[in-house]
Sequence to fold (295 residues):
Amino acid sequence: MKQLTLVVTCTDRKAAVPETELQARQLPAGPVKERATLWSERINSAAHTHSLAELYRGDHWTQARRLSEATAQAGFKADLWVASAGLGLQPVSASAPSYAATFSTRHADSVATTAEDGALWWSQLQEGTGRATLQELGKASPILLVLSETYAKAMEAELRALADVASEALLFGGVEVAGIQRVPADAGLRRILGGTLTSLNVRMAASWLQHCQDGQLTSTATSDSWNKWAATESRPEQHNRRPMTDEQVIAFIRKQTSSHPGISRTRLLRLLRDGGQACEQSRFATLHIKTMGKQ
Fold:
């Protein structure tokens, strides 16, 4: 059976609360390389570790695990890897401590404030903790990647190197990279694929694999089949969200931050809206500051 390498991003939600020193917000100020080196030392010396397969939680990760099943049904042998702002590139079979680190710039545990710093952090992190590069994985087999725009920008140098060597490379989400076929996120497919926006790209990737009838990831036949299906099924989203009182918004914020320590304000608002509820962005920001300031 032909191997297919899958690369997905990690998730905010973890099975265990990270130790204080393994929260990016606790890193001292300083140059990115120094901070990344210190972070790698902390990761490598952590006493308690977990299997990555069991460490991550949430809809995105549930769908990432199911992507392996879709890969097998398409006639490939899946090799699942995780792209992490805290660990670099890791096989899902690896073990690591629980941690809090992300490339999302508005998150309390963001590791970088600019795309340039994110790319520098990724490069340094890969040297300290990464198990492989995208280029190495792409040389070994066809590769399917599911990356957010923020993560793809941090990994862009590796994506360009991957494009130079990969026989077949397919990217869901991310950014345009010459030599890699890209499928942008299409919110109109949520009607048929279901789930949250955070898992949409993974669900789209699984759908793509259902259209692989010739054993080729990016063949013309596969691309044409999926594009025809997507054009038929995609519908503009209708947002008929329910308005909320200030008290309801505050209760939502308290409940979610208790369940997901370190979750960003942007992510919280997305969860609220994904649940069919409405709150204007500036109002939500004011209520978030009011609520978190009282804790």
In short: The first helix runs from residue 32 to 45. The beta strands are 2-9, 50-51, 76-84, 88-91, 95-96, 143-147, 169-173, 181-183, 242-243, 277-278. The first strand starts at residue 2 and ends at 9.
